[in-house]
Each structure stands twice: as C-alpha cells, then as structure tokens.
Design goal:
This protein is an alpha/beta fold. It folds into four domains: 13-58; 63-99, no CATH class; 107-183, GMP Synthetase, Chain A, domain 3 (2-Layer Sandwich); 187-293, no CATH class. It contains eight helices and eight strands; from the N terminus they run H-H-H-H-H-E-E-H-E-E-H-H-E-E-E-E.
Length: 299
C-alpha cells in the first residue's frame, strides 16, 4: 500500500487573510481600523497572496526532483532521461523494472531467474543439498542450494559454458552466505518388459511401436507425467501405471507379466521394488530398454 502524500497547499488566499485578521485583536488591540483601505490590511492581503504562491510551489514536485528520485531508484547517479521520452514514461519504466525479479532468495526465485535468462528445458532447486557430493549425507547441508538443470535436449550433458554462465548470474544475486551448485540431472536407467495380448486383426509391430512411444512420453523429463510438464523429480515408478499406459493403447486387449528393473549410476541392476528413489533423480527410458512381446505370435 503506497504512503499517502501530504497536501501542503491546504489554505487559499481568503483563508490566509481571515486567519491574519482574526489575530489583530489579541496581537494589536489598538489597531481598530480594519477597512480594506487601511495600510495594515493592504499588507496582510499582500502577504496572504505571497504565502498562497509559496504554498502552491512547495506542494509541487518539479521535474528535476523527480529525475533525482528516478536516479535513486535506478541506482545510477549518472542517469539522464532520454530527450525523446516523457517523464511519465521514464517513471513507469523505472517502477516496472523494480517489480522485476532480481534477487535470488527462494527456490522459486532461482528457478524463475534461470528460466527467464537461459535457454534450458527445466530447472529444479533443492534447498540444503549439495548434489556435487558423490555420497549424499542423510541430514540437510545448511546454507547450500543445488540447481538441477535439464537441457532442452534431455539426456545430454549440460554444456559447461552454460553451466558457468548460470552460476555467474546467480552468484551476484544470491544471499550472502549461500553456497550454490549448478549440476546436471542424475538419470536412473529403467528397463521394462511386458506381454501384449492384441485384439483380433491387429498388427503387433504397429502396436509395439505405439507402446514404446507411449511409455517414453509418459516418463519424459520435459513433457511426461500426468500434467505433461515433465516427469517429477524423485517420483517412484509404479508397475500399475505401466499396465495402465499399455492397456489404453489402441488394439491392446490386455497386458500381462510387466516387469521393471532399475540401474542407478554406479550400481548394479535392481528390481524396482528394491530401489529407493532419491529426490533429485529422473527416469531414463530408451527404446532399447523397452521389450514388448506378443505371446500369441507362435501359438
């Protein structure tokens, strides 16, 4: 809510004359001639006129003062208003610039600043985490913040030059004492096998291709998930959802024997039920990791 500005021009000429005349009996009792022709009354009216002019001027903010205020808001003592720009337009431009997000304080600030200034696919911030460590401690790492950047082409390594530019931009906007880390996503390879039983007259290769595309889309880091905004970081994979995605394919009668294994970075392949997903991990599902078979092909 803006601060109300005081109105300094709150007395006109008539008010000032009347206020001065009302003080005559108490300040100068021997002054009894209050006619307009009296010299004292003439002086009162003259000073009232001058006072009214001064009050009007004091209540105005001249253009030069407004430009000084704009310099203060911009933080640039050398700023001068362009000759082809009105003072009103310069004021509006300055106020809009102040409303623009600049300082990185919250996780939303970090994510918005990266998305607004760089061509990346997606950003996720993890507070009190240092994802540059090979082994993540169970307790929060106070004062650290990690930004996971998904490139516009997922499953590729984040360009080191872009990584440096992002870090440099946020370095000058972070809070004092905050240690920030810009990293690439950690992908967990997922393998899926399933038996598809088709409706009569369906071509298995066509249904298989549609099934592979459906699963890759569902787990895609940029356009997957239920909201099509990208598969959520750290979200577990459920076999029931794979059944659902395959069962809704055109031409599929029913699905059976869905099996899922995961292979985290630097670890052996594990059954899905034996793996605990980390908050910063995403699913990586390539075409070679999806095996869909037709049990009735050889029957």
């Amino acid at each position: 809510m803006p601060l109300p500005l005081p109105n300094l021009d709150d007395h006109d000429y008539a008010d000032l004359v009347e206020m001065a005349r009302s003080l005559i009996p108490s300040e100068c009792p021997e002054w009894t001639d209050h006619n307009p022709s009296d010299t004292g009354i003439i002086l009162i009216e003259l000073f009232a006129w001058l006072t009214e002019l001064l009050l009007y001027q004091v209540n105005q903010v001249p253009d030069s003062s407004q430009q000084v205020f704009l310099r203060l808001l911009k933080g640039d003592e050398t700023w001068e208003k362009p000759k082809n720009q009105s003072l009103q337009a310069a004021t509006q431009e300055t106020i809009l610039a102040l409303r623009k997000r600049y300082r990185a304080v919250t996780a939303a600030d970090y994510e918005a600043l990266v998305m607004e200034n760089f061509a990346v696919g997606r950003v996720k911030v993890f507070e009190n985490r240092n994802l540059t460590l090979k082994t993540q401690p169970p307790e929060p790492v106070a004062g650290h913040i990690s930004l996971v950047i998904v490139p516009q082409e997922p499953f590729t390594v984040l360009d080191p030059a872009l990584q440096t530019k992002i870090a440099d931009l946020l370095e000058e906007r972070r809070l004092l004492g905050t240690k920030q880390h810009v990293v690439s996503p950690e992908y967990v390879n997922v393998s899926i096998t399933a038996n598809l039983y088709l409706e009569a007259g369906r071509v298995f290769e066509q249904v298989k291709a549609a099934g592979i595309a459906q699963l890759q889309q569902f787990f895609h880091p940029l356009s997957g998930g239920e909201d099509k905004q990208g598969w959520p970081f750290g979200r577990a994979v459920y076999i029931s959802e794979i059944y659902q995605q395959l069962d809704q394919l055109d031409g599929v009668d029913y699905v059976a024997k869905v099996a899922v294994t995961v292979k985290p970075p630097g670890q052996n392949e594990l059954l899905l039920k034996n793996y605990e997903w980390q908050a910063h991990q995403l699913v990586k599902l390539s075409q070679s990791q999806i095996v869909l078979t037709d049990p009735e092909a050889n029957s």
